[in-house]
Amino acid sequence: MLLLSACSGRGKDSTGKRIITVTMEPQRYFTEAIAGDKFTVRSMVPKGSSPETYDPTPQQLVSLGESEAYLRIGYIGFERSWMDRLMNNTPHIQVFDTSKGVDLIFESAFDHGDHRHEGGVEPHIWNSAANALIIAGNTFKALTVLDKENEAYYKARYDSLCQRIEQTDSLIRRTLSAPGADRAFIIYHPALSYFARDYGLHQISIEEGGKEPSPAHLKGLMDLCRKEGVRIIFVQPEFDRRNAEIIARQTGTRVVPINPLSYDWEEEMLNVAKSLSAE
């Protein structure tokens, strides 16, 4: 896809508000929570699309030029594929990395089928209350750089967001501490690595090197499922659930849909915890 020429200079939306672009919907939630009515926040990767493999539309490439800043999530496939090209096309845009300060999970470089996580960085950093506080802090700092005049406004909203994140974390811990709560789960695409680390859980991926699992791998998952007493298999809307259903039928586990890419970050994190609880 050829990059289209983007307008230069700071633009505004139809209501006269300044514009910020983020990569994905959970980021839009954090950014809007702090920015309030001072900025319009746009996501490059729309609802229902995967930030691992998404390609922007020509219209998005043009409208990106209306933004004065881009807040990246850090290491997701879309950014690795597109950030250099996007910024070369819109040199006036300030870029802020909201992953700065996150305690990253590193593995050896690994493939996820149609995308690759270079450098072994597990990119799903937003699925963690601890990381969400860091992302929120970096977002607050970015907004004060862009609009120092309204720093007090952003600080009040940032403090409120942090309080909600901390409350969510407390609710998750309380839920997972209930007698009989699951300590292990199966998931098709391993998007909950940071969530699992936060709460001492064991995440088991159906994907085998990022690809469809072999019959031998499926059998191994079934054996592990029985050994560890796994009762939950999480499936995401952008992935095929057939293999999850095969495992569920053979082991008596329950298939539970989740959406780690949801705008409703707090609700989604609590849904994951409640699914693992014996309640």
UniProtKB/TrEMBL annotation:
Keywords: Signal, Transport. CDD domains: ZntC. InterPro entries: AdhesinB, Bact_metal-bind_prot9, Lipoprotein_PsaA-like, ZnuA-like. The keyword Amino-acid biosynthesis does not apply. PANTHER family: HIGH-AFFINITY ZINC UPTAKE SYSTEM PROTEIN ZNUA (PTHR42953:SF3), HIGH-AFFINITY ZINC UPTAKE SYSTEM PROTEIN ZNUA-RELATED (PTHR42953). Pfam families: ZnuA. This is Zinc ABC transporter substrate-binding protein. Belongs to the bacterial solute-binding protein 9 family. One of its GO terms (biological process) is metal ion transport. GO terms for molecular function: metal ion binding.
